[in-house]
Amino acid sequence: MDEKKRAEIKNALAKHVDKISKACENSLKRLGTDYLDLYLLHWRGRIPLEETIEGMEKLREEGKILRWGVSNFDTADMEELWNTSSGKNCMTNQVLYHLGSRGIDFVLLPWQREHNMPIMAYSPLAQGGSLRSQLLNDPAIDDIADKYNVQPLQIALAWTIRSNKVIAIPKAVQDEHVLANAEAATIEFTEEDLSRIDQVFPNPTRKMPLDII
Ligand SMILES: NC(=O)c1ccc[n+]([C@@H]2O[C@H](COP(=O)([O-])OP(=O)(O)OC[C@H]3O[C@@H](n4cnc5c(N)ncnc54)[C@H](OP(=O)(O)O)[C@@H]3O)[C@@H](O)[C@H]2O)c1
C-alpha cells in the first residue's frame, strides 16, 4: 500500500472515531450524566468493525463508558468481531428473543454461551404479545401460567431468562407490569414445563436468519 492510501485510511479512521466520540458526548449531555455503564452499537452498518471498536475502546479509556457491546449481530458478525484485536472486550449482543422468535437457540445462543458472552434479549414480551398473539392465548401456556398463579406473559419472560445466560430488557411503564416482570424472575420451570412449551413453540432445527424489528 502506498503512503497516500495509508494516509487516507488513517484519516478516515480518525474521522470515524471522532464521530463515535461526539455521539457519545451528546448522549451523556442528554442524559445528564458523566459516563454510561454500557454503550451499544445498534446494528452492523457499513463502517468497518475495527474502526467502531477502536472508537468504543477510546471511550472506555476516557472513562465515558464502562463497557461496550453490539446489537443485531448474527453468528457470522460475532465471529468476525471476535477475531478483531479488541473484539473480545464486547460485553453483550442485544438481539430479538422471545418465545415466539427463538431462532437464535440453534447457533447464536450456543456460540455466545461457548464464548462466555451473555445475550441481551430485546422485546422479550413480543411487545406485549403484539408480535405473536399466541403468547397470550395458547392453552398450554395458560395451563403453566395457572400452575404458577401468574399471567401468560410472565411465563414468556421467565422462559426467555430460563438459562441464566440471557439478560432480558422488558419495557414496562405501568407499575403492575414492572412488578409482574420482576416476579417472573422467580419462576423456575420443571423439565416437563419446558418440554410442553417446546411442543407449542418448537426449538429450531436449522439455522434461522436473525429476526430483527
Ligand atoms: N436493539 C434493538 O434493535 C431494539 C429493537 C427493539 C426494541 N429494543 C429495546 O427493547 C426493549 C423492550 O422492547 P419493546 O418495548 O419493543 O417490547 P417488550 O418489552 O417485549 O414489550 C413492551 C410492551 O409490553 C407491555 N408489558 C410490559 N410488561 C408487561 C406485562 N407483565 N404484562 C403485559 N404487558 C406488559 C408494555 O406495556 P407498558 O409499557 O404499558 O407497561 C409494552 O407495551 C426497549 O428497551 C427497546 O428499546 C431494542
Automatic annotation (TrEMBL):
Record has ATP-binding as a keyword: no
Domain of life: Bacteria
Molecular function via GO: oxidoreductase activity
Protein name, per record: Glyoxal reductase
Gene coding for it: yvgN
Class of the enzyme per the UniProt entry, highest EC level: oxidoreductase
InterPro entries, A to Z: AKR (IPR020471), NAD(P)_OxRdtase_dom_sf (IPR036812), NADP_OxRdtase_dom (IPR023210)
Every NADP-dependent oxidoreductase domain range: 18-200
Transmembrane segments: none
EC number: 1.1.1.-
Keywords: Oxidoreductase
